[in-house]
Sequence to fold (332 residues):
Amino acid sequence: MTGQPSRKKVLVFRELPPDQLARLQSQHDVTVANPRVPEQLAAFNAALATAEGMIGSSYPINESLLAKAPQLKVISSVSVGVDNYALAELAARGILLCHTPGVLTETTADTIFSLIMATSRRLVELANLVREGRWTRNIGEELFGWDVHGKTLGILGFGRIGQAVARRAALGFGMPVLYHKRSPIDLAKELPELLGKVTHAPLDELLQRADIVAVVLPLSSETRGLMGEREFGLMKPGAIFINGARGAVVQESALLHALDHGTLRAAGLDVFATEPLPLDSPLRTHPKVTALPHIGSATFETRHAMAELATTNLLNALAGKQPISAFHFSTT
Ligand code: NAP
Fold:
């Protein structure tokens, strides 16, 4: 009986593709229970008591939940953002957290750029005009959009995804790019292809100079509510605001105020403070808002790649091996 690794209890808290679930089941005893589905909540709570590993996403793993999981050694999140996890408590309990950076970078940048295009060129509004049979004569000025190429793009958060957005903007659309992060990067060394096309700017200066501002920041205690009334007030008249990161980085009441009473031209939003977006949210039907249902990484290819990476992370960690992408608690 040598070399037979012990089977561990694994709790899958959001559905995995069948091939990745099968990888887990071949090595471990797996319970699939999504706590967001009311009929599965009891099974989820019961499995917590013995789970040594968990894998999933989009559910708050807070202190009280962790207290019910005394055997837990590792959580593998099928996401790059880790704002759903009580990081200090995980660190205190010595629980390893893994996430999925990298594999979703380009797809999420595509989504953010789609929002830039959709808001600037009024794509949804004009497609609906055709669909609803209201295209009855050549369109006039009242339905014109605004150029994207050549406009100044301000990117808040310049990590993997922010840089991928910058490449699209600077190299593909001839857009001067300003970026904001706490520690400016050495472009010549790290991003030579963007040298001379991308400039670091303090937050206020970026807001004042950019025609389009895109948020690509992680949600943390520092970034929660970062975009408030003062910040929207600094933006250029006619500027466009995009959020492709996390809803709570934005004070939604301030955004609405800027759309209704300020000079903000439009907003493209993939994420919201509460998701799914409540039916009574004014952002849902606001004429200046293009709202998406949190689809940043939602393509067949990328969601599968995320699930595969998260599964590998979990299998490695449970086998005592180094996961491919552990989250480093010190980086927030
Ligand atoms: P990343 O590589 O870790 O980049 C984060 C960037 O934000 C870094 O440049 C970081 O630089 C900067 N930053 C962090 N805290 C800051 C602060 N307080 N002030 C200014 N800059 C700050 O992360 P990523 O892979 O690009 O992902 C970014 C976020 O996008 C994720 O955390 C996630 O929430 C979101 N996301 C959304 C979707 C979606 O479906 N819409 C999909 C994927 C990711 P410094 O540390 O130097 O400040």
In short: DSSP finds 13 helices and twelve strands in the chain. Residues 105-291 form a domain with the Rossmann fold fold (CATH 3.40.50.720).
